Amino acid sequence: MKLVTTIKELQAELDAARSSGQSIGLVPTMGALHRGHASLVERSVSENDVTVVSIFLNPTQFNDKSDLERYPRTLDADCALLERCGAQIAFAPSVAEIYPAPDTRHFAYPPTDAVMEGARRPGHFNGVCQIVSKLFAWVEPTRAYFGEKDYQQIAVIRRMVADLGFTLQIVPCACIREADGLAMSSRNTLLTPAERAIAPHIYEALKASREFGSAHSVTTTIQYVVSRINAVPGLRVEYFSIVDGESLLDVSDWDEAPSVVGCITVYCGSKPIRLIDHIKYH
Ligand code: PAF
To answer: What are the tens digits of pLDDT across the range 209-266?
Structure first.
């Protein structure tokens, strides 16, 4: 695997692939890679001739600077994982390489970027669109792989792809979980052992809400999930929304949309660490 840090080196590596018509898979990441990322990379490797994994802790998507400061940075271990997964190129640029000047572009894709995370993390999805649009323009991938753990992010990126006319295929990949159900996330390494022990209650409540929801209304199911998680000392629900899986607007009836998804963010512990998860109802 080749580790490159500049756009020029990246382009040089990709020129040969492009001129011989090879397919290119892109897996955008912020590093601190885990098995969830590995599953995206392995899928890309199996579906494309060349796989590029970007490792870039994108400052413009962090509205909370302390979140950015404490985000884990593990480049050597990340490269070792990518070697094992069979990726051909790791692109790990500096902030100056990506943003030689402040990115003043403004992306707005309501309602997908205005609700849930968008409402609570001002500027977050704008920053995501800034970096992802740059990566798409430089790499020109055939396919780009994103984890469904960040369900809302995929909905926003789909809107951006349609808006900017990128011809690539977005490949959503199922959330990978620990044995006890906790959604894999780079932020999990920041949990203390006591926090890690209570975090699986989030997915337990989401799973239980499938059966509960089959006999109760959307509103009652939301109350059930929120009170069940808030009853665990150390966990506090920031929001739990049951939404149309495409528009991400709240639904009031289970059959209001072709796909219905529950999206949740929970504060865990005293620092606290924000944990995101979701469940598909249908
Ligand atoms: O999901 C992430 O890790 C990031 O939001 C992404 C897509 C790599 C953009 O920085």
So the answer is: 999 999 999 999 999 999 999 999 999 999 999 999 999 999 999 999 999 999 999 9
Model confidence, pTM: 0.96
Q: Is the CB of 133 under 6 A from ligand 1?
A: no
CA 92 centroid distance within chain = 18
The answer, yes or no, to whether the previous bond of 272 is cis (omega within 30 of 0) is yes
| Best residue for ligand 1 mutational test, from 41, 44, 53, 61 (most atoms within 8 Å of Cβ) | 61
pLDDT attached to residue 277: 98
Tell whether ligand 1 has an atom less than 6 A from the beta carbon of residue 117. no
* Closest to 249 (Cα-Cα) out of 261, 239, 238, 264: 261
- DSSP notation for 49-65: SEEEEEE---GGG-SSH
